[in-house]
Structure formats: structure tokens, C-alpha cells
User: Which sequence fits this backbone?
């Protein structure tokens, strides 16, 4: 039970690269299209990913389309959430900055708490922006069929880990090594 099931993936990698330069090879459009996928309009970005070609760790079953769709949905929902968070924070910041510029001669304590509020809002916005970028990157990898490789060592990040942390870019080993630094 080791490497045997990895071999049929080679072919799908080939179709992947063929599709990216031209995309007129109207190939495996619907290997396992189910009702679930049809209703899943948000995830429909056109070209289907061969889920079986995505890397998994030893002992893990290959990705199924439903599992990948679930991760994709999570990421898409996160993107919407982070975007509205950024919008709200930006609006708040605009308000805070306006209040700040009008506040000549205010109590220093008020100015202090206004600054604190502004900094908190800013770090909230920055964090949301970072998470937004990471979510978009993960989605891009899903679309390109390159989802699930560790950024550091290139080994599979692992399906279980990605289901828990769809934005993970490192395998557990590399992540732990990074945290120890
Ligand atoms: Zn790694």
C-alpha cells in the first residue's frame, strides 16, 4: 500500500499543462459530475481539476471532487468574509481619521484611545488582507491543480491538514521547524 496508486496521476498532469496553453482540448469535462456539483455554481470557474492528481500523504485516500469542492467553498466564503471585513475596517478607519483631524484641543486621553482604536482597526484590516491573499492563493492552486504541495520541501501537505487549514502552505514537518526558529 505505498506508491502503487500514484501512477495514474501522470496522465492528468499532462492534460493540465495542455489545458493551460490554449485550453481547446475539450477533454475530461465531467469525470464524475453529480447533482451536487451542478448546484455548486460559485465554484464553477470553467476548467475542472483532476482531483486524483492532487498530492496526499502516505496512507491518505486521494482527494474526491466533493472533498475538494468543500475546501473550495470554505475558501470562497472566507474570501467574501475577509473582503467585507476589510471594507468595514476601511470605513471605520476613514471615520477615525476624520474624527482625529477634527479633534484639535481634545483631551489627551481621548486622543490616546482614538489612536488605540485606529491601530486595532488597522491590524484587523491588515490581518484580513493577509488572510484574503492566502485564500486567493489557495484557490488559485486548486484551479491550477497545484494545490497541496509544501512550499518548502515540495512534499504533500496532506489532505487532512488542508481540510482543517485550507490556507496551509507548509507540511507539518516544515511548519514545526519554522515555529521552532
Ligand atoms: Zn514541507
Assistant:
Amino acid at each position: 500500500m505505498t506508491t502503487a496508486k500514484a501512477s495514474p496521476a501522470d496522465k492528468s498532469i499532462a492534460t493540465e499543462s495542455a489545458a493551460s496553453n490554449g485550453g481547446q482540448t475539450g477533454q475530461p469535462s465531467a469525470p464524475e459530475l453529480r447533482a451536487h456539483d451542478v448546484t455548486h455554481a460559485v465554484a464553477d470557474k470553467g476548467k475542472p481539476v483532476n482531483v486524483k492528481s492532487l498530492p496526499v500523504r502516505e496512507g491518505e485516500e486521494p482527494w474526491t471532487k466533493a472533498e475538494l469542492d468543500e475546501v473550495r467553498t470554505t475558501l470562497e466564503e472566507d474570501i467574501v468574509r475577509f473582503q467585507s471585513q476589510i471594507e468595514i475596517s476601511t470605513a471605520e478607519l476613514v471615520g477615525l481619521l476624520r474624527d482625529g483631524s477634527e479633534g484639535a484641543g481634545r483631551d489627551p486621553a481621548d486622543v490616546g484611545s482614538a489612536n488605540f482604536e485606529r491601530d486595532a482597526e488597522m491590524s484587523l484590516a491588515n490581518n484580513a488582507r493577509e488572510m484574503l491573499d492566502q485564500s486567493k492563493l489557495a484557490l488559485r492552486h486548486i484551479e491550477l491543480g497545484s494545490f497541496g504541495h509544501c512550499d518548502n520541501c515540495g512534499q504533500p501537505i496532506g489532505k487532512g491538514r488542508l481540510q482543517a487549514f485550507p490556507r496551509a502552505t507548509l507540511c507539518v514537518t516544515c511548519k514545526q521547524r519554522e515555529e521552532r526558529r
